[in-house]
Design a protein that fits this description.
Length: about 150
Amino acid sequence: MDGVLDWSRRVAQTIWIGGVWTIGLIVAPLLFSALSRDVASGLTWRLLGSMGWVGLVCAAVLLVDWLWRHGLAGMREGGFWLLLLMLACTLVNHFAIAPMLVGLKASAAQAATGVFGGGFATWQAISSLLLLVQSLCGLVYVTRTD
C-alpha cells in the first residue's frame, strides 16, 4: 500500500504543481504573445479551468497520502497547511472567481461591484494573485517536504 501511495503522491505533485507552473509561467505568456487577447484569454481560462479540476483530485490524493504517512499529528506540520492553502486557492479560483469573471465578461457593459469593488480587471488580478500564491506554496511544498 505504501508503494502505491508513494507513487500516487509523486504523480499528483508532478501533475498539479508542475501544471500550475507550466500554465502560469510558460503557456499563458506564450498564448498572449502569439494570439489576440480574446483568443489567448479564452484558451488560458480553459486551461486553468481544467487545471482546477486536476488540482481538486491531486489535492485529495496528497492530503490522503499526508494523513496516511503522518497520522492526525501531521495536521500540525507545515506541509499539510501548504496543501490546504493550495487547495483553498484552487477552490476560490475555480468555484468563486472564475464563474464571476465569466459573468462579468458576458455583461462587460455593466459595472460590477463586489467585496473589492471591482469589475473584470480587479477580479482577474485577484485570481492571478491566488495563482501566484498557489504556485509559491507548491514550490515550497516540493522543496521542503518529504
